[in-house]
Each structure stands twice: as C-alpha cells, then as structure tokens.
C-alpha cells in the first residue's frame, strides 16, 4: 500500500510545480479583479448618491424622525434625485 502511494507521489511530482504556479497566479488575478470591481462599483454608487439634493432643500429638516416635510418617504433616497418639489435653501432671514 505504501509502495503504491510512493509511486503515485513520484509520478505526479513533476506536474506539481506548474499546477501550483497556475493556481497561485489564478488566485492572485481573481483577488485583484474582485478588488477592482468593488472599487468601480463603489465609485459608481458614490457618484449617484452625491446627486441626491435633499440636504440643500428648504424642506429638509435634518431630523431622523422627519427628514422631509413634503416627501418623508423618499427623502435621502435615489427617488429624491427627481423630486419635483425641490426648493434650494435661501440664506435670507424670515421676520
């Protein structure tokens, strides 16, 4: 039994180095590809989230209970990008 195992190990040994080389580089390439895809998707999501105008709207309350007095259900979401009731904040004081 041990002689058969010894024979199999000796017959496979010349192929182990190329197989391990290919497996190692395949793993490195897959990790790099995954990191690149994650970074690309993160940048895409960040660009889309920066288009949400809620924080600059006069109806935005900055309160976690009621974020927006007009559309509280879509405040700070992707749906708010096309909000028809958006009014930019004004710096004038109301008396």
Annotate the secondary structure layout.
Blueprint: H1 2-49
Written description of the protein model:
With 95 residues, the protein is an all-alpha fold. It is built from one helix and no strands. The longest helix is centred in the first third of the chain and has 48 residues, at 2-49. It is rod-shaped. The N and C termini lie far apart (97 Å).
- Secondary structure class reads mainly alpha
Low-confidence stretches: none
Distance between the termini: 97 Å
Q: Beta-sheet strand percentage?
A: under 5%
- Rg, please? 29 Å
Proportion of residues in helical segments: 40-55%
Query: What pattern of helices and strands is seen along the backbone?
Result: H
Largest sheet: none
Instruction: Compute the average pLDDT.
Output: 89
Total helical segments: 1
Beta strands, count: 0
The figure for the number of domains is: 2
Global shape: rod-shaped
